[in-house]
Specification:
Distance between the termini: 30 Å
Mean pLDDT: 85
Strand content: under 5%
Shape: globular
Radius of gyration: 21 Å
Number of strands: 0
Largest sheet: none
Helix content: over 70%
CATH topology: Growth Hormone, Chain: A
Number of helices: 16
CATH architecture: Up-down Bundle
Number of domains: 1
């Protein structure tokens, strides 16, 4: 009997939305929550930076996912664990040891999310051929970033509204939000139990520890021997430094938008922040991600490399403008200016991020592709973690204005590693 075929449109959007939610909660929303609960920018950057660690070291356990059980099994079970961690954060926020306990839950969520990422990306490559991988890369990136915008937008605005409407404390308002997200993840788990396909290549294997260990060593050796030494070094540097400016901006843009004017920020209310990121920013991101996937699918990755490099770096200048112009976000004109700037930045990011995703897919082709993609994303996250951890220290030392100028100077890193990159002109083209 022929197996029923499930359209990628039925599961790719929800799967990558589910992949993005815990990521943004751990590395984005957590920073805003802790800021509202009294932490400084230096503390925010340092603590939330450490939460990137599971995504960096996930290649160490990715072979276990390749060799034990199915990708589908890992996806479904990690979604349950993420839901439990979300409920744990909600419960601990109103306890005396809220910071220690919530950080513990965030770390559990981060490890479960990193494992979910490995499984989801492997499942994506198993179920789709090369052309469909290229065609849907814009869709998966869009819904992943949709989750990011949803987290940075709606999930930031809601606690602010709840604290005002119910006259409740900030911890209580955030607790309600995290309970709601726990319920959402259980719903996604139930949906994916039904809708995720069962590819014949996604099979479980029974292996001993020594076999898994041997597999891990083989995976790492194959990764570093995949290309000639020079090409390998360039590829690793590209994955490590392509998002260097974004790494510096990651946390500080959030605090800049929401810190009061007296501290150098724009003083946006949570609802204003949610409107700008959750509506206008979302439109820009979706357009950039979809257009990026379509263009590369038509012409190949090499043809659009430089336009996308420019797209992901130059929009960062909007923060230099905002830091010096300091538009009044309480007025319609000021909010429009800020929203327009965020649209430009998010459109550029949606377009430019396509290059990094496709290059990691390109580098991962061949044996151990799931594990190799996990190694690629781990390297990319390391490039995000280290600059992010010191970004608060730099900002507190020089202020927002000079900090954003430093970020623009850091864009040269992206240009240098992109100039050294060698890509098959035919990769990504529709065949």
């Amino acid at each position: 009997m022929k197996q029923k075929t499930t359209s990628p449109w039925a599961w790719i959007p929800t799967l990558y939305f589910a992949e993005g939610i815990p990521n943004v909660l751990v590395t984005g929303v957590a920073a805003i929550m802790y800021m509202q609960m009294g932490l400084t920018d230096t503390e925010l950057a340092l603590y939330t930076g450490w939460l990137n660690l599971p995504w960096i070291i996930k290649p160490l356990w990715s072979p276990f996912i390749d060799l034990l059980c199915t990708k589908r099994w890992w996806i479904l079970n990690m979604q349950v664990l993420i839901g439990a961690a979300l409920a744990g954060v909600a419960f601990t926020l109103n306890t005396p040891f809220w910071f220690q306990m919530s950080m513990c839950c965030f770390f559990i969520m981060a490890f479960a999310s990193a494992t979910h990422d490995i499984s989801a990306d492997g499942f994506y490559m198993i179920d789709l051929d090369e052309h469909n991988q290229t065609y849907f890369v814009g869709i998966r990136n869009t819904f992943y970033r949709l989750a990011v915008i949803f987290g940075n937008g709606v999930l930031v605005a809601v606690p602010g509204m709840l604290s005002v409407y119910f006259r409740s404390s900030i911890p209580f308002a955030w607790s309600i939000v995290f309970y709601g997200m726990a319920g959402l993840f259980i719903a996604l788990w139930l949906y994916h139990c039904y809708i995720l396909p069962k590819p014949t290549e996604d099979h479980s294997a029974s292996n001993s520890f020594s076999e898994v260990w041997t597999g891990l060593k083989s995976t790492l050796m194959a990764f570093f021997n995949k290309f000639p030494c020079r090409a390998t070094i360039i590829g690793i540097c590209f994955m490590l430094l392509y998002r260097f400016p974004e790494a510096l901006l990651n946390t500080m843009t959030k605090t800049f938008l929401m810190r009061p004017n007296s501290e150098g920020g724009l003083g946006m209310a949570p609802t204003e922040y949610g409107l700008s990121y959750g509506t206008v920013g979302l439109i820009g991101l979706m357009l950039g991600g979809i257009i990026g996937g379509i263009l590369v699918s038509r012409d190949g990755m090499k043809r659009w490399l430089w336009p996308m490099v420019w797209a992901i770096t130059l929009p960062d200048i909007v923060y230099v403008y905002l830091a010096y112009a300091m538009p009044d976000v309480s007025s319609m004109l000021g909010l429009t200016i800020v929203s327009t700037c965020l649209f430009v930045e998010q459109f550029g990011y949606g377009l430019g991020f396509t290059v990094l995703t496709l290059y990691m897919l390109y580098y991962s082709q061949g044996d151990y592709k799931t594990s190799h993609y996990a190694i690629c994303t781990g390297i990319s996250y390391l490039g995000l973690m280290l600059p992010n951890m010191v970004s608060g220290l730099i900002k507190d030392a020089v202020g927002y204005k000079m900090f954003f100028i430093i970020v623009m100077l850091a864009c040269t890193m992206t240009f240098v590693v992109s100039a050294l990159l060698k890509i098959d002109p035919e990769f990504g083209k529709k065949k």
